[in-house]
């Protein structure tokens, strides 16, 4: 698979414990800073499509604002039953630039 990384933010845009939504083409991506480590997941809850950027960060998860489902920012896996996943995206930091590959 080809690497198609796109700059979406700078590290200075997100303090630890913060998240933001950005668009890469037609894809809405949630970017989160967990203690200096950055993660990217699809911005929509797969259960009913709520925007995850309207939720809250708790530990290494984002809570869906609609039904309080928690999704791991590291794996995309929903905690609890039923298990569902939100897609994760490859992310890298080059200098101060945060780049995402929605491939």
Mean residue pLDDT: 92
Number of strands: 9
CATH level 4 superfamily: Rieske [2Fe-2S] iron-sulphur domain
Order of helix and strand elements from N to C terminus: EEEEEEEEE
How many DSSP helices? 0
Strand order of the largest sheet: 1-9-8-4-3-2
Here the CATH topology equals Rieske Iron-sulfur Protein
Given the C-alpha coordinates, what overall shape results? globular
Give a description of the structure.
This protein is mostly beta strands. The chain has a single domain, classed as Rieske Iron-sulfur Protein, CATH 2.102.10.10. The strands form 2 sheets. The chain has a 6-stranded antiparallel β-sheet, with no helix packed on it. A 3-stranded antiparallel β-sheet has the order 5-6-7, with no helix packed on it. The mean pLDDT is 92.
Write the layout of secondary structure elements.
Layout: E1 6-10, E2 19-24, E3 27-34, E4 37-42, E5 56-58, E6 61-63, E7 70-72, E8 88-94, E9 97-101
Antiparallel strand pairs: 1-9, 2-3, 3-4, 4-8, 5-6, 6-7, 8-9
Salient structural properties:
six-stranded antiparallel sheet; mainly beta; 103 residues; Rieske Iron-sulfur Protein
Short description:
With 103 residues, the protein is mostly beta strands. The protein is 0% helix and 45% strand. It is built from no helices and 9 strands.
């Amino acid at each position: 698979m080809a690497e198609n990384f796109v700059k979406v933010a700078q590290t200075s845009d997100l303090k630890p414990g913060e998240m933001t939504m950005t668009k890469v083409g037609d894809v809405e991506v949630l970017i989160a800073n967990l203690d200096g480590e950055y993660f990217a997941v699809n911005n929509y809850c797969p259960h009913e499509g709520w925007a995850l950027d309207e939720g809250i960060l708790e530990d290494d998860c984002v809570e869906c604002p609609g039904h309080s489902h928690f999704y791991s920012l590291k794996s995309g896996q929903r905690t609890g039953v039923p298990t569902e996943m939100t897609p994760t995206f490859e992310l890298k930091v080059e200098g101060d630039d945060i780049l995402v590959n929605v491939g």
